[in-house]
TrEMBL record, chain A:
InterPro entries tied to this protein: NADH_UbQ/plastoQ_OxRdtase_su6 (IPR001457), Nuo/plastoQ_OxRdtase_6_NuoJ (IPR042106)
Keywords, comma-separated and alphabetical: Cell membrane, Membrane, NAD, Quinone, Transmembrane, Transmembrane helix
Superkingdom classification of source: Bacteria
Name recorded for this polypeptide: NADH-quinone oxidoreductase subunit J
Species, as recorded: Streptomyces roseoviridis
Keyword Cell membrane: yes
Subcellular location: Cell membrane
Topology of the protein relative to the lipid bilayer: Multi-pass membrane protein
Homology family: Belongs to the complex I subunit 6 family.
EC number: 7.1.1.-
Membrane-crossing residue ranges in chain numbering: 6-23, 30-49, 55-81, 93-113, 133-157
Known role: NDH-1 shuttles electrons from NADH, via FMN and iron-sulfur (Fe-S) centers, to quinones in the respiratory chain. Couples the redox reaction to proton translocation (for every two electrons transferred, four hydrogen ions are translocated across the cytoplasmic membrane), and thus conserves the redox energy in a proton gradient.
Pfam families named among the record's database cross-references: Oxidored_q3
Reaction(s) the record says it catalyses: a quinone + NADH + 5 H(+)(in) = a quinol + NAD(+) + 4 H(+)(out)
TrEMBL record, chain B:
Main location: membrane
Record keywords, A-Z: Cell membrane, Membrane, NAD, Quinone, Translocase, Transmembrane, Transmembrane helix, Transport
Native organism: Streptomyces roseoviridis
Membrane topology: Multi-pass membrane protein
Protein name as annotated: NADH-quinone oxidoreductase subunit K
Catalytic reaction(s) noted: a quinone + NADH + 5 H(+)(in) = a quinol + NAD(+) + 4 H(+)(out)
UniProt similarity note: Belongs to the complex I subunit 4L family.
Statement: the UniProt record of this protein carries the keyword Cytoplasm: no
General function of this protein: NDH-1 shuttles electrons from NADH, via FMN and iron-sulfur (Fe-S) centers, to quinones in the respiratory chain. The immediate electron acceptor for the enzyme in this species is believed to be a menaquinone. Couples the redox reaction to proton translocation (for every two electrons transferred, four hydrogen ions are translocated across the cytoplasmic membrane), and thus conserves the redox energy in a proton gradient.
Transmembrane feature ranges: 6-22, 34-53, 59-85
Length: 186, 101
């Protein structure tokens, strides 16, 4: 059963990944990428990582829904009603990717992989939680800070009004010029 | 199934994503290529956990890091695209070449 699941998900993942780059419709490309990443989540569940598999599935579903909105906002042909290619250096990139794949394949087949040490715990999710709250706490704190910095950076980048708009060119205004009262400028 | 099979699948996803990241002119499509590459990394980390060291949670922690990287990449990427589009009406990588300077 798991072997069948592996092969079905594997073929679907690679086929969807390739179709992401072939579709003319941006909405279809987004949902094709969603399919590929859902298959990755499914493969994680096949490996016994139920929690991380479900997290991947949930996160990618929401992420791709947001991505579809952005695709339709920024692309000139979101519905794919006319053929469109927006690529450069296709041949060079194909050579680089083929060489990379061959190199990875040779490494995978020739590397002396270590034997499996230990057995999976009864509850891998508990194992992950104990690790993140124990020996891997520094990793967890770093990820938390990175996410916090991301929140600040995205708000700063996305906001239309910057400090020069609010305080003037020399930033010496006593009060910021905000359209609505009640903020930091009162 | 074996570790090698999972790693071949992960490599295939990584290389398809690499092709997208190298060829696509649209910044949003470029980000889709990066997501595929990170999907390959996630799969390779899961396979390494299962077939090499299932007793420790290090492989799972690597997956958490990769998933966080995907979220950060997408959030910052869209914010940069929004800022670029707002200031210069740019949504293609070739038109934003001045960012290299």
């Amino acid at each position: 059963m798991t072997t069948v699941a592996f092969w079905v998900l594997a073929v679907l993942a690679v086929a969807s990944g390739v179709m992401v780059l072939r579709f003319d419709s941006m909405a279809r490309a987004t949902f094709s990428l969603l399919t590929a990443l859902l298959c990755v989540g499914g493969e994680l569940i096949v490996l016994g990582l139920d929690y991380l598999g479900i997290v991947t599935v949930l996160m990618m579903t929401i992420e791709m829904a947001i991505m579809a909105v952005f695709m339709i906002m920024f692309m000139m042909n979101p519905a794919g009603l006319m053929p469109m290619t927006m690529v450069h250096n296709k041949r060079g990139a194909a050579v680089i990717c083929a060489l990379s794949f061959v190199l990875l394949l040779v490494g995978i087949l020739l590397a002396p992989w270590p034997r499996r040490s230990g057995r999976p715990p009864a509850d891998p999710t508990m194992d992950l939680g104990m690790s993140l709250m124990g020996p891997q706490m520094l990793t967890m704190m770093t990820l938390g800070m990175a996410l916090f910095a991301t929140i600040v950076a995205t708000v700063v980048l996305s906001t239309r009004r910057g400090r020069y708009d609010r305080f003037g060119d020399d930033l010496r205004a006593a009060r910021p010029e905000d359209p609505v009262r009640g903020g930091v400028g009162r | 199934m074996s570790l090698e099979l999972f790693l071949v699948l992960a490599s295939a996803l990584f290389c398809v994503g690499l092709f997208g990241a190298l060829t696509q002119q649209s910044i949003v499509m470029l980000m889709m290529g990066l997501e595929l590459m990170l999907g390959g990394v996630i799969l390779a980390a899961g396979a390494a956990w299962h077939y090499i060291a299932p007793a420790t949670a290090d492989g799972q922690v690597l997956i958490v890091v990769a998933i966080t990287a995907m979220a950060v990449e997408m959030a910052i990427g869209f914010a940069v695209v929004t800022a670029l589009f707002r200031s210069r009406e740019i949504d293609m990588t070739d038109m934003a070449a001045e960012l290299r300077e």
